[in-house]
Each structure stands twice: as C-alpha cells, then as structure tokens.
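Hi there,

I know you've been waiting on this one. I reran it after we fixed the sequence typo, so this is the corrected version. Both the input and the resulting structure follow.
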Amino acid sequence: MDLVEPYREFFSITMADTDDLRKEVFRLRYDVYCRELAWEDPGNFPDELEKDIYDGVSRHCLLMHKRTGLYAGTVRMVLTHDSDLQPPIPLVDHCAGKLFDGPLRPDRLPVGSYGEISRLALRGEFRRRASEQNNPEGHGEQLFEWTQTERRRFPHIALGLYLGASAVGLADGASGVYAMMEPRLARHLRYAGIRFEQVGEPIDFRGLRAPYYISRKVLFKYLSRPLRKLLFAIAEDMRLKV
C-alpha cells in the first residue's frame, strides 16, 4: 500500500521556522480551539493567535492542502533539552497524580531525552465525518479501514501530522515521545504498528484522554512498511534526518 504518492499529491508538511509561519500556526489554533470548538476563551487572545508557555521550546509543523493552498492542520513537538519550564511538558500538568508509578514516568527519564506531541489541530473543512466535527484531531471509527477506492487517497491527514511531529523528535535525538490521546486512537495506531504505551489513567480532558509514550526503538521495530516510507517522505519534506 503506497501512502507516499497520495500524501504528496494532496499535501505537504513544512516546519514553521519563521515568525510568519508561526503566526499561521497560532492563527490556525485560534480558529480551531477558540472559534470552532470553544475550548479556549477568545478573550485571552486579543490578537487572535492562540499561544501558551510551551510554544517557545517547541518546533511546529504546518500541513498544507495543495489544491486550495490552505493550511489544513498543525502540530508541535515540545522539546525539553533547552527548557527550564516546570513541568517540562504539558502532559505532566494535565495528568498530575494520574501517572503510573513506573520507569516511563517523565520524572524518571532524563530531561532532554523526550518530548511531547502536542496541540494537534485540523481546520474544520478537513474534519469531514460527523464523528470528527468536535474533535481537533479529526479521527473517526474508520481510521485504518481502507477500501480499494480510499487507497488512492491519503486516508487520514492527522496521521501525517503525528508522523511529522515524530520526525521532529527523532531528528532532535529524543529517545521517545509522549502524547495525550483518546484510548480509541491509541488502539487504531497500534494496527499500523505505532505502539504507544499507556503511562497513566484516562482523564476528562476535553473528552476522555490518557497519557501515552512511545520509544524510538519501539517505533522503528513495529512501524508498518507503508508508514515507515511515509515517515521518511515527511521528514524529507521538512528537511530532517531521522
């Protein structure tokens, strides 16, 4: 199954590494989180740019829909090696007291060895199914249920953003990354060999979500061949070596 050709036909992912591109990230997040989903108070962002304290230690990705020229989605990788923020990743704050007491707790790992996939958002026009309209990640029940017709199309654009953020973490030298996600999404990702391990109890965080972790070793051990090729294609677009 070729995912690279339809990805390159419909989309491209770029690093938001200029002030203008980062403004596109924050403007898109404002549109999704404040206007579309009402998860954030627009009054907190009078410039209509949704930001938080972790943006300064993050690298941001933008997904462009080629036919329309619209930025369809964004995600960031919160990095920890040059950060003195406490906690070093937002997941720790969200899951205070709910993380499992094990070796994969963030405070058991060296700061700088991990990051967090965070702030993923898809523009409303690209959350097409009814089940996706109130979910910024845009995933529905049919995440990996491809038909013959769908194989000629890029099946799930949020997956491309997850891989883009992963490419950032890999290129940065991270040993692994964390993410907050719905347990259902984690199960779907496992079908493709993206084996996130749950590291805490589910919490009510804009719906039921739980903290997860995946190591570099586990990612490359189990990642399916189509997604491995897609990961490298996305990394090439972003000029990253993973």
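Quick highlight: The longest helix spans residues 19-36.

Best,
R. S.
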